[in-house]
Write a structure and sequence with these properties.
This protein has two domains: 85 residues, RimM (Elongation Factor Tu (Ef-tu), domain 3), CATH 2.40.30.60; 68 residues, SH3 type barrels (Roll). The chain is mainly β. 22% of the residues are buried. The protein is 5% helix and 47% strand. The chain is built from two helices and twelve strands, in the order βββββαβαββββββ.
């Protein structure tokens, strides 16, 4: 499993002092208030910031980063992924997974490897797993209980329950 996790994304600048509006990828917000350092990544670039303050409203997470003091500076961070150490991420409930931990898992059906998870994509009701198939094709499968069974991180596998999604 990865030591670092993407927990959010910078959506926009907010206000006049350089705050950023943040989207939580997990939907959880409480762990953001405990953050002291974040790594913002976009493309191949990465920059570490000290967190000056975090506040949550009923609609948003607002974060003030050291050295970002203007709306223009905050706007320049739009689209960046917020990366933290695993220990700083929201705790998981049973049956929950960090998206980054699913990427790279081998997908099996009836005991045979059929592909590997390339990416996890946000979607309406359920995230979609982009699976690169062993034959070279790819398929998007909803990450939902009716399609997937056991996730075995130790073995690096996830079990597909319904082969109809491959057709």
């Amino acid at each position: 499993m990865k030591d670092e996790l993407i927990i959010g994304r910078v959506r926009s600048a907010f206000g006049t002092v350089g705050e950023i509006k943040v989207e939580s990828l997990s939907g959880e917000t409480a762990h953001f208030t405990a953050l002291r350092v974040v790594d913002l990544r976009r493309g191949f670039g990465s920059e570490i910031f000290r967190v000056e303050s975090v506040r949550t409203t009923h609609r948003a997470i607002l974060m003030k980063l050291e050295g970002v003091d203007t709306p223009e500076g905050a706007a320049a961070l739009r689209g960046a992924e917020i990366v933290v150490r695993r220990t700083d991420a929201a705790p998981l409930e049973p049956g929950e997974y960090y998206y980054g931990d699913l990427e790279g898992l081998i997908v099996t059906f009836n005991g045979e490897a059929i592909g590997r998870i390339k990416a996890v994509l946000e979607s309406g009701a359920h995230p979609l797993l982009e699976v690169t198939l062993v034959d070279g094709g790819s398929v998007l499968i909803p990450f939902a209980d009716q399609f997937f069974g056991e996730v075995d991180h130790a073995a690096g596998r996830i079990q597909l329950m319904d082969g109809a999604v491959l057709e």
